[in-house]
Amino acid sequence: MKDETAPLDADPPTQLRSAFAAIRHLETAVLGVQGNEGMVLRYGAFYGPGTGILDEAALGPLRRRQFPLIGDGGGWWSFLHVEDAAAATALAIERGAPGIYNIVDDEPAAVRDWLPALATMLGAKPPRRFPTWLARLAVGSHLVVMMTEARAGNNAKAKRVLAREPAHRSWREGFREVLSQSPQGRFA
Predict the structure, then answer these.
(1) For residue 50, which phi and psi values (nearest 5 degrees)?
(2) What torsion, rounded to 10 degrees, do the Cα atoms 170, 118, 184, 43 define?
(3) Integer distance in angstroms from the first to the last C-alpha of the chain?
(4) CB 33 within 8 A of CB 42
(5) Percent of the chain with pLDDT over 90
(6) What confidence score (pLDDT) does residue 68 get?
(7) What is the pTM of this model?
(8) Residues 6+ apart with CB under 8 A from 29
Protein backbone atom coordinates (compact mmCIF):
# COMPACT_ATOMS: atom_id res chain seq x y z
CA MET A 1 0.00 0.00 0.00
CA LYS A 2 1.15 3.51 -0.75
CA ASP A 3 1.19 6.25 1.82
CA GLU A 4 1.06 9.95 1.02
CA THR A 5 4.83 10.18 0.47
CA ALA A 6 4.73 7.69 -2.42
CA PRO A 7 5.16 9.48 -5.73
CA LEU A 8 2.63 9.24 -8.51
CA ASP A 9 3.57 6.90 -11.35
CA ALA A 10 6.41 8.61 -13.23
CA ASP A 11 5.76 6.66 -16.44
CA PRO A 12 2.03 5.90 -16.73
CA PRO A 13 0.55 4.32 -19.87
CA THR A 14 0.00 6.77 -22.73
CA GLN A 15 -3.77 6.91 -22.13
CA LEU A 16 -3.20 8.09 -18.54
CA ARG A 17 -0.34 10.57 -19.03
CA SER A 18 -2.48 13.70 -19.35
CA ALA A 19 -4.51 12.75 -16.25
CA PHE A 20 -1.35 12.13 -14.20
CA ALA A 21 0.16 15.40 -15.46
CA ALA A 22 -2.98 17.26 -14.39
CA ILE A 23 -2.91 15.64 -10.94
CA ARG A 24 0.78 16.50 -10.50
CA HIS A 25 0.12 20.09 -11.56
CA LEU A 26 -2.80 20.51 -9.16
CA GLU A 27 -0.95 18.95 -6.23
CA THR A 28 2.10 21.13 -6.86
CA ALA A 29 -0.03 24.26 -7.22
CA VAL A 30 -2.08 23.58 -4.08
CA LEU A 31 0.89 22.68 -1.90
CA GLY A 32 3.39 25.13 -3.38
CA VAL A 33 1.69 28.49 -2.92
CA GLN A 34 3.52 30.68 -0.40
CA GLY A 35 1.40 31.40 2.65
CA ASN A 36 -1.22 28.89 1.56
CA GLU A 37 -2.10 26.01 3.82
CA GLY A 38 -3.28 23.73 1.05
CA MET A 39 -4.53 20.20 1.38
CA VAL A 40 -4.75 17.52 -1.26
CA LEU A 41 -7.22 14.68 -0.80
CA ARG A 42 -6.47 11.55 -2.82
CA TYR A 43 -9.72 9.62 -2.97
CA GLY A 44 -10.12 5.89 -3.55
CA ALA A 45 -12.36 4.42 -6.24
CA PHE A 46 -15.80 5.84 -5.53
CA TYR A 47 -18.87 3.70 -5.08
CA GLY A 48 -22.37 4.36 -3.88
CA PRO A 49 -25.87 4.10 -5.26
CA GLY A 50 -25.49 4.28 -9.03
CA THR A 51 -21.91 5.58 -8.88
CA GLY A 52 -18.42 4.40 -9.67
CA ILE A 53 -17.90 0.66 -9.76
CA LEU A 54 -21.55 0.10 -8.78
CA ASP A 55 -22.89 2.03 -11.76
CA GLU A 56 -24.88 0.01 -14.26
CA ALA A 57 -22.15 0.70 -16.85
CA ALA A 58 -19.86 -1.62 -14.82
CA LEU A 59 -22.45 -3.97 -13.31
CA GLY A 60 -24.15 -4.86 -16.60
CA PRO A 61 -20.97 -6.16 -18.26
CA LEU A 62 -19.99 -7.98 -15.05
CA ARG A 63 -23.36 -9.77 -14.99
CA ARG A 64 -22.87 -10.77 -18.66
CA ARG A 65 -19.25 -11.89 -18.02
CA GLN A 66 -17.95 -9.08 -20.23
CA PHE A 67 -15.88 -7.46 -17.45
CA PRO A 68 -12.86 -9.78 -17.39
CA LEU A 69 -10.21 -10.51 -14.81
CA ILE A 70 -7.01 -9.49 -16.58
CA GLY A 71 -3.80 -11.43 -16.06
CA ASP A 72 -3.23 -12.35 -12.44
CA GLY A 73 -5.58 -9.61 -11.20
CA GLY A 74 -2.68 -8.38 -9.06
CA GLY A 75 -3.61 -4.71 -9.10
CA TRP A 76 -4.63 -3.42 -5.68
CA TRP A 77 -7.49 -0.95 -5.35
CA SER A 78 -8.68 1.26 -2.53
CA PHE A 79 -12.39 2.01 -2.44
CA LEU A 80 -14.44 4.78 -0.90
CA HIS A 81 -18.19 5.15 -0.41
CA VAL A 82 -19.34 8.56 -1.66
CA GLU A 83 -20.81 9.39 1.77
CA ASP A 84 -17.42 8.70 3.38
CA ALA A 85 -15.79 10.96 0.77
CA ALA A 86 -18.11 13.81 1.74
CA ALA A 87 -17.57 13.25 5.48
CA ALA A 88 -13.78 13.09 5.10
CA THR A 89 -13.77 16.28 3.03
CA ALA A 90 -15.69 18.11 5.76
CA LEU A 91 -13.28 16.81 8.42
CA ALA A 92 -10.29 17.91 6.34
CA ILE A 93 -11.73 21.43 6.10
CA GLU A 94 -12.33 21.52 9.87
CA ARG A 95 -9.26 19.69 11.22
CA GLY A 96 -6.75 19.10 8.48
CA ALA A 97 -3.19 20.33 8.47
CA PRO A 98 -1.53 21.20 5.17
CA GLY A 99 -0.45 18.20 3.13
CA ILE A 100 -1.69 15.18 1.25
CA TYR A 101 -4.21 12.68 2.63
CA ASN A 102 -5.31 9.34 1.22
CA ILE A 103 -9.06 9.14 1.70
CA VAL A 104 -9.87 5.44 1.34
CA ASP A 105 -11.57 2.64 3.28
CA ASP A 106 -9.75 0.23 5.59
CA GLU A 107 -9.68 -2.77 3.26
CA PRO A 108 -7.70 -2.42 0.04
CA ALA A 109 -8.19 -5.40 -2.23
CA ALA A 110 -6.57 -7.09 -5.17
CA VAL A 111 -8.66 -7.15 -8.35
CA ARG A 112 -8.49 -10.97 -8.20
CA ASP A 113 -10.42 -10.73 -4.91
CA TRP A 114 -12.89 -7.87 -5.33
CA LEU A 115 -14.02 -8.51 -8.90
CA PRO A 116 -15.13 -12.14 -8.36
CA ALA A 117 -16.64 -11.15 -4.99
CA LEU A 118 -18.69 -8.44 -6.68
CA ALA A 119 -19.86 -10.94 -9.33
CA THR A 120 -20.96 -13.28 -6.54
CA MET A 121 -22.87 -10.44 -4.83
CA LEU A 122 -24.70 -9.91 -8.12
CA GLY A 123 -25.50 -13.60 -8.44
CA ALA A 124 -23.39 -13.69 -11.60
CA LYS A 125 -20.86 -16.25 -12.76
CA PRO A 126 -17.20 -15.45 -12.02
CA PRO A 127 -15.54 -13.09 -14.49
CA ARG A 128 -13.71 -14.65 -17.42
CA ARG A 129 -9.93 -14.49 -17.39
CA PHE A 130 -8.01 -12.71 -20.14
CA PRO A 131 -4.27 -13.00 -20.60
CA THR A 132 -2.46 -9.71 -20.18
CA TRP A 133 -1.18 -9.63 -23.77
CA LEU A 134 -4.69 -10.13 -25.19
CA ALA A 135 -6.24 -7.55 -22.88
CA ARG A 136 -3.56 -5.02 -23.84
CA LEU A 137 -4.60 -5.45 -27.50
CA ALA A 138 -8.33 -5.38 -26.74
CA VAL A 139 -8.66 -2.63 -24.13
CA GLY A 140 -5.29 -0.87 -23.91
CA SER A 141 -2.36 -0.64 -21.56
CA HIS A 142 -4.09 1.71 -19.13
CA LEU A 143 -6.76 -0.83 -18.16
CA VAL A 144 -4.18 -3.62 -17.97
CA VAL A 145 -2.09 -1.52 -15.57
CA MET A 146 -5.14 -0.73 -13.43
CA MET A 147 -6.07 -4.41 -13.22
CA THR A 148 -2.58 -5.86 -12.74
CA GLU A 149 -0.21 -3.23 -11.33
CA ALA A 150 -2.16 -0.53 -9.46
CA ARG A 151 -1.30 -0.06 -5.79
CA ALA A 152 -3.78 0.84 -3.09
CA GLY A 153 -3.55 3.78 -0.72
CA ASN A 154 -3.00 3.62 3.02
CA ASN A 155 -5.40 5.72 5.13
CA ALA A 156 -3.38 5.76 8.38
CA LYS A 157 -2.54 9.48 8.14
CA ALA A 158 -6.15 10.53 7.52
CA LYS A 159 -7.32 8.38 10.42
CA ARG A 160 -4.67 9.85 12.72
CA VAL A 161 -4.72 13.54 11.75
CA LEU A 162 -8.39 13.94 10.84
CA ALA A 163 -9.62 11.49 13.50
CA ARG A 164 -11.46 9.87 10.61
CA GLU A 165 -13.06 6.45 10.70
CA PRO A 166 -14.95 5.59 7.52
CA ALA A 167 -18.56 4.53 8.09
CA HIS A 168 -18.02 1.94 5.36
CA ARG A 169 -14.73 0.41 6.50
CA SER A 170 -14.83 -2.41 3.99
CA TRP A 171 -15.80 -2.40 0.34
CA ARG A 172 -17.38 -5.83 0.98
CA GLU A 173 -19.86 -4.42 3.46
CA GLY A 174 -20.36 -1.23 1.46
CA PHE A 175 -20.97 -3.03 -1.84
CA ARG A 176 -23.51 -5.36 -0.20
CA GLU A 177 -25.32 -2.44 1.40
CA VAL A 178 -25.55 -0.46 -1.84
CA LEU A 179 -26.58 -3.47 -3.91
CA SER A 180 -29.27 -4.47 -1.43
CA GLN A 181 -30.83 -1.02 -1.79
CA SER A 182 -30.59 -0.96 -5.58
CA PRO A 183 -33.76 0.03 -7.44
CA GLN A 184 -32.73 -2.38 -10.25
CA GLY A 185 -33.91 -5.31 -8.19
CA ARG A 186 -32.63 -7.61 -5.54
CA PHE A 187 -29.12 -8.98 -5.70
CA ALA A 188 -27.71 -12.15 -4.26
Answers:
(1) 70, 20
(2) 50
(3) 31
(4) no
(5) 68
(6) 95
(7) 0.89
(8) none
- Mind listing the pLDDT tens digit for each residue in 84-108? 999 999 999 998 889 999 999 999 9
Show me where the domains of the chain are located. 14-180
Give the CA count within 13 Å in the CB-facing half-sphere of 115.
Answer: 26
Q: Does domain 14-180 have CATH number 3.40.50.720?
A: yes
Angle between helix 111-122 and helix 171-180 axes, rounded to 10 deg = 20
Check if the beta carbon of residue 171 is closer than 8 Å to that of residue 44. Answer: no
Split at pLDDT 50, 70, 90, the class of 7 is: confident
